[in-house]
Amino acid sequence: MVADVGSKVHPRYKGISEWEIKGIAKPAQLLKWSDKYFGGEVSQSPRLLELGSPKINKAFWFAYWMATPRTKSKLRWGGAPPVLEENTLLKLMKSAVKQGFFTRNFLNELKSEIEAELRN
Length: 120
Prior knowledge:
120 residues, alpha+beta, six-stranded antiparallel sheet, 6 strands, 32% strand, globular
């Protein structure tokens, strides 16, 4: 089952093992390719999850779900950090920014870093 906003998830971080999904950034379409290792057609849904708990207001989790012939083409949680190409990471970040995942302070600091790098 793919988690949705409001679902409880259980990544362990700072002693907390139960989080509520507050937001999900994901590409508009699944990433698809053929892979001999997995035995054929593979689909992946990379996501950036905004998490909340009573102890920590906001944390972010890069997660993904994959479908392969081994899963009978049903999406299953990937279980390890995703490998993301730049364009996929950019899509996730754009979606997260549009949904208000980040504070204004974070975005301003990121903007400053990007502008400084582009001047070099």
